[in-house]
Amino acid sequence: MTDARLFHWGAVCSLITLILLCLAWELVLAPLRPGGSFLVLKAVLLLLPLMGVLRQRVYTYQWSSMFILAFFAEGVMRAWSDSGLSQTLALVEVLLTVCYFGSVVLFVRAVRLRQA
């Protein structure tokens, strides 16, 4: 398996896991309000780069590397301010965004080196 494929699958797996985490977090595990909240719509935002990432479009990888930083910031803030299960889920969100960001940067680098 080439480096680019490995980083591609790292990005795909971390993005899909992040989508599932956001859905579970805001609907079932630790919603802000009983029964869920509108914060679950943040999972819809994560669907925006999914098709481009699955198709290995470098442009999508590039803009999504900046896009994911908003989720990183949200995870850091909720890890700082929340407690209990919500704090743990926020730390998992931070971990997944770091994995995604690293995979994206390394994928783009591997593709650029292969093209050179």
In short:
The chain crosses the membrane at residues 6-29, 36-54, 60-77, 89-111. By secondary structure, this protein is mainly α.
Count of DSSP H/I helices: 5
Oligomer: single chain
The beta-strand count equals 0
Radius of gyration: 15 Å
**Sheet with most strands:** none
Give the ordered list of helices and strands.
HHHHH
Give the overall shape.
Answer: elongated
Keywords: Membrane, Transmembrane, Transmembrane helix
Organism: Vogesella fluminis
InterPro entries: DUF2069_membrane
Protein name: Membrane protein
Provide the fold topology.
Blueprint: H1 3-29, H2 42-47, H3 50-54, H4 58-81, H5 85-115
Helix pairs in contact: 1-5, 4-5
